[in-house]
């Protein structure tokens, strides 16, 4: 089965980025969200991002050609002809399970259902459908158009055929699949990355170093393009906090419990770039002050 028609649920930072990379790969995309304002903002962000990539010579096709492949919609029923659905909504298991139940009723029997979740077990999403063997995780990293790794995650019932399809689709996007053979909380890369993020926050809490120096040290010593706080602001403090909570709730490993400073910043609405303030402050164009 050739994967050509894509349906993306959720038009936030991750959903819009996922829709963009599928369109750039020549696939037809419906980007769905019940919030019209969110959809409008997503379209604007995608247009800006594609425009920049075309400007820099990283895309061969004109901007309009790519954008024409993305159709916004507020109706989940438009998923009826999709070959692959990628869910990218808020990290809440009840919400995600409800969406998967509805998609299972709407979609063709041979449609694959994927989640971009960073921490919720794929098994629990597949369990509410009649096609658990065709349910998998496709965990992209932010910013989606730039990051090349995608975790292809197996649930308990996910078939090998589905895993191979997921890996093949990721390669079609120009990215590299990282197979995760067990959907333990946090999967693979987040379990590694979030531990260092938690430690960085704890060092900041104790006054051992500033966020700026921790970020600078990580960049210069480990060759990373961004430090943990810079990355945290791009991803969103709320996203990281929810991912940590999800891992902790299932694993009960203390190393994944969100630090107090992170929890307080989320409560204060300091969510990173998207809110204008996180670990750093940003202007209305997202430029660091």
Automatic annotation (TrEMBL):
Important for catalytic activity, annotated site positions: 139
Any Gene Ontology biological process: fatty acid beta-oxidation
UniProt xrefs under InterPro entries: 3-OHacyl-CoA_DH, 3-OHacyl-CoA_DH_NAD-bd, 3HC_DH_C, 6-PGluconate_DH-like_C_sf, 6PGD_dom2, NAD(P)-bd_dom_sf
Pfam families: 3HCDH, 3HCDH_N
Occurrences of domain 3-hydroxyacyl-CoA dehydrogenase C-terminal (ranges): 186-282
Recorded coiled-coil stretches: none
Keywords: Oxidoreductase
Chain ranges of the 3-hydroxyacyl-CoA dehydrogenase NAD binding domain: 6-181
Any one GO molecular function term: NAD+ binding
Positions that bind CoA: 49, 56, 118
The name this protein goes by in its record: 3-hydroxybutyryl-CoA dehydrogenase
Provenance organism: Desulfosarcina ovata subsp. ovata
Highest classification ranks of the organism: Bacteria, Pseudomonadati, Thermodesulfobacteriota, Desulfobacteria, Desulfobacterales
